[in-house]
Specification:
Blueprint lengths: L7 E5 L4 H12 L3 E6 L2 H14 L8 E5 L5 H15 L2 E6 L14 H22 L3 E10 L12 H21 L5 E7 L5 H9 L4 H8 L10 H12 L10 E4 L6
Helix pairs in contact: 1-2, 1-8, 3-4, 4-5
């Protein structure tokens, strides 16, 4: 039921972390994947990793697109690439995101706007361009966060942006259910990605101490990108055929 055989997927933020792990997993489960990221070299590296680990039949499994998903024209181009290269679009994983670890007092207006552009506007724009290209049975998964469901310290713009993603997901699910398109969010806790390491740097904290703090949850550890990717695969697949508008928490019990 978790197969994506014969389907075409877009993964934004696919150059590293959860995005890369999900692009690889999608390809292993039969999908053709468009890997989009503002880091074009990183996106291409993900494509090369797919080519090295997934048997290619009837052409390439994946293609990279350098794109700023806060830009409408770039989002349109990503969707057009999926349709022109692979013949359609069935799955969209809106995963691109950034974080700024500050309070309201220390956050520049320009930084607030950039977080909102990358984390929120990108989801709107990608959905705006992707939904018309999707057939019935399409699935959209948006990356929220545990901090989109509760508050967190020194991360005002990130918390606000991820709360917006969670509720935008619900609105999208309502609007497009009759077209046979499901929309859900996956909400990770602390996950060992380059972004998590960047958080430690922003806060000027020792990585080992930061990682130990991230592990302060019932399961006693932070998550891995592969574990989050498995949840995304489930929501994107027919195994989740009656699930839409949901916020799936994948955080080792942290929110509990």
């Amino acid at each position: 039921m978790n197969t994506l055989e014969g389907k075409v997927a877009i993964v934004t933020g696919g150059a590293s972390g959860i995005g890369r792990a999900t692009a690889l997993l999608f390809a292993r489960h039969g999908a053709r994947v468009v890997v989009a990221d503002i880091d074009g070299a990183g996106a291409e590296a993900t494509v090369q990793q797919i080519a090295a680990t997934v048997e290619e039949t009837s052409g390439p499994r994946a293609v990279a697109v350098r794109a700023d998903v806060a830009d409408s024209e770039d989002c349109r181009r990503v969707v057009e690439t999926a349709v022109s290269t692979f013949g359609g679009l069935h799955v969209l994983f809106n995963n691109a995101g950034i974080i700024r670890r500050t309070t309201a007092l220390d956050l520049d207006v320009e930084e607030w706007d950039r977080v909102m552009a990358v984390n929120v506007r990108s989801v709107f724009l990608m959905c705006k361009h992707a939904i018309p290209a999707m057939t019935e049975g399409g699935a959209i998964v948006n990356t929220g966060s545990g901090w989109g469901l509760k508050g967190g310290g020194n991360a005002i713009s990130y918390c606000a942006s991820k709360a917006a993603v969670v509720n935008m997901t619900r609105a999208l699910a309502i609007d497009h259910a009759k077209a046979g398109i499901r929309v859900n969010s996956v909400n990770p806790g602390d996950t060992d990605t380059p972004m998590l390491r960047d958080e430690a740097r922003q806060l000027d904290e020792d990585w080992a101490a930061f990682q130990a703090d991230a592990a302060d949850r019932p399961m006693g550890r932070s998550g891995s990108p592969d574990e989050i990717a498995q949840a995304v695969l489930f929501l994107a697949s027919d195994a989740a055929s009656y699930i839409t508008g949901s916020a799936l928490v994948v955080d080792g019990g942290g929110l509990a």
